[in-house]
Amino acid sequence: MASMAILLGSGKRKARTKIARTEIGRVGPKISESSSSASPLLRRHVQSVCFRGRLLENNMTEWFHFTMAGSDSNKKKERRRRCRRGQVNLVFHHNHRHKGEGERSRLLSPIQVQPDSSDGSSSAALGSIIYCIGGRCFRNCDDDDGHTRRVQYFDVNRPTEAWKEASPMINPRSEAKVVALNGKLYVFGGCSPPDCGDWAEVFEPCGPDDDGGQGQWTALPSPPLPPSLPTYNYRCLFAVARKASNKIVVVLQGSYAAYEYDVAHNSWLDFNFDRSLLVLNQPVVVGNMLYWVSHEINAYHLDKKTLFSGPIEDLQIEHHLRCGDYLFTSSLLHLAEDHFCLLWVAPDESLYRLHCTILQVSKSTDLNGKGCLSASVLSCQSFIVEFPLDFLDGLLM
Question: Coiled-coil ranges per the record (predicted)?
Answer without folding.
Answer: none
